[in-house]
Amino acid sequence: MSPRKVNKEQKRREIALACFDLIHEIGMKKITVSTVAQTAGIGKGTVYEYFENKDDIIFEIINMHIEHHHNKFLELIKDVKSTRQKVFHFLDFVMIDSEENMRHFNGYKEYLSIVLSDENKSMKQFNTNCHLFFEGKLKTIIEDGIKNKEISPNSIEFIDSIMAFEKGVALQKMTQENFNSYDICEKFINNLFNILELKK
Amino acid sequence: MSPRKVNKEQKRREIALACFDLIHEIGMKKITVSTVAQTAGIGKGTVYEYFENKDDIIFEIINMHIEHHHNKFLELIKDVKSTRQKVFHFLDFVMIDSEENMRHFNGYKEYLSIVLSDENKSMKQFNTNCHLFFEGKLKTIIEDGIKNKEISPNSIEFIDSIMAFEKGVALQKMTQENFNSYDICEKFINNLFNILELKK
Amino acid sequence: MSPRKVNKEQKRREIALACFDLIHEIGMKKITVSTVAQTAGIGKGTVYEYFENKDDIIFEIINMHIEHHHNKFLELIKDVKSTRQKVFHFLDFVMIDSEENMRHFNGYKEYLSIVLSDENKSMKQFNTNCHLFFEGKLKTIIEDGIKNKEISPNSIEFIDSIMAFEKGVALQKMTQENFNSYDICEKFINNLFNILELKK
Amino acid sequence: MSPRKVNKEQKRREIALACFDLIHEIGMKKITVSTVAQTAGIGKGTVYEYFENKDDIIFEIINMHIEHHHNKFLELIKDVKSTRQKVFHFLDFVMIDSEENMRHFNGYKEYLSIVLSDENKSMKQFNTNCHLFFEGKLKTIIEDGIKNKEISPNSIEFIDSIMAFEKGVALQKMTQENFNSYDICEKFINNLFNILELKK
DNA sequence: GATGAATGAGTTTTCATTCAT
DNA sequence: CATGAATGAAAACTCATTCAT
Question: Nearest CA to the C1' of E19 belongs to which residue?
Fold first, then answer.
């Protein structure tokens, strides 16, 4: 009960949580240790009690965003039945422009710009793990579809392409003007499933 | 229109040209106005005679790289006959790990990290134009293939997806460990053309 | 006088003793209050129960080292007979490069750099006392030699010079490259005793 | 004439010269880049135009002091005739407590505390060179004395000891209370020359 | 037009000391 | 008595931009 012994890991998360929105509000590049301290309502020195250095802070905040995004996705596909529909939801992240989604999307954008500029190995490793998480989910979706005889067995061949497609759409949405991600995704899924779906 | 203006533009290009390789050599992020001045053999103040600010310089250098890349690509597909082969070459940029290609690829990576971090509107505009250039080329390739009865007329529907796929592969190659872009692209093209190619 | 006070003094020594080797291991300059607390297995705040401030801690640790060095020296000359030999041992500290000796020597170096940089009066006082201790020992050695008719009575005049010489050699060993302290000390003692020793 | 091209080396010296007295006034350890900039009447950034880093500044200031000291010494012994007298002047630096001399002496003290605390190799090298300079001068003095039949040929054997003695006296003057350097040096020289001087 | 010297705001990081529990 | 979480002053260094010559 007493504050004598603080749970370091928990405090880390508390500080990061307090700064969760900084990424949207001022951009990852402009986050300074001072800002973090102020936002979390603590002293600059205190930040260094819980984080190795500035990158460590940024990393924890990003971590939190990704985790949040994972959970959102799992929630989303929980009750969906058709494979086509599940894949639609898989692409929600890049298709849907709801305010909340856009906040996450912009967080991801900032995140990418860090990963791209840093030659930070652990960032790449972390990013690979995120990729594998979603790839695993997609694989499950596709395999379930095959089992249910919804889609043809060779659908499994298209997983890599879907993953790449999704990332490409994200990138274009981030870097191009007037890019209509919804239409492009819709067309892609329809073309794809017209090929993959088994006629009954 | 005035000869003044033309000279300015020419000098801009001269300076940028002198700095063409800086992006590979020291990385876009580490380019300073001092470096540019030194590399171009002019004074730091002179740089500001021809460029608004640092971003303006970076922009011009990038411009030059993209242009160079455009020309390379046009050269590449000049004598290629089959549509499948042309699309293969279209993906050369992300598939082939030759030293020269990797230099360009890493330049593109640096470039992306700038576009993503900046909220620079003109960057986005510029990037859109680049996209449209390559999209145009791809469209021509596909349309020619349709005219030649190599591929089915609905192939035109897949252009957006190919564009997105290519960008997604690029992104993954930049941000993931042990990513095998070659195999993924090969499988993608083969799967695609098995569907699109007309049997004779 | 009160048992309180005695316990305080004892605890001071316990803490300092626990940190005895820190000086060799990480260097005096890099000792932080945190390190001291950790090494002594107590809380940072507790350190301040027993020490006024950081300098006070450092001082206590140094104290302990000097005391240790005193004892070593007394041990060393206990059974030595000839005066020349005793003076040789007097210079052991700056002549001999055994690992243990070098550890102490480097400790002394760190110590000096503190004394020189600080305008700390008590440090100077303390250092004077150390000097007087060794000067007393040297005086006894010389006086014994005179009594034994080993060396001439005016040898007493050379005590200050020997003391200064020893410190000068130490300083040079600390601050010069390729300084051969052994040869210089040997020559010095031989020259000196050739003058001072009585022929029989 | 125009400020278009500044002589970098000269400006370095100008800045260092402006800070010449900082060492006495606030102590070497407390010199900050800000202080240097303020004292020299320039901007902080400007300091870095002429110096690699903070150590580089300190080094230049020290350099200037040593150089100054060298010149003073050469001036001092120019017209002195007897060898005994020359060696007296050789020890002036540690014997005489004139205000100007004490300023230099304190500068040397600060300098030593840097050399001792840093594991900076170039500092040691530099210090060795200073030593060699004065050793050379002393050697010349002694050799001249031998040539003139003032002192015995084996006087040459005592050079190292005189050098060490001088440094030892300096160190004691820096680190001990009520240390009477004058008397000790006087006694040393007299004892020494009573032995070395040839009787006529 | 060309130059490059001067600038200072802005950033990260350390650590002795305090004080509430 | 003991503790350790919180603190913030202080310091080194970078670099885009300006402006006098």
Answer: C45
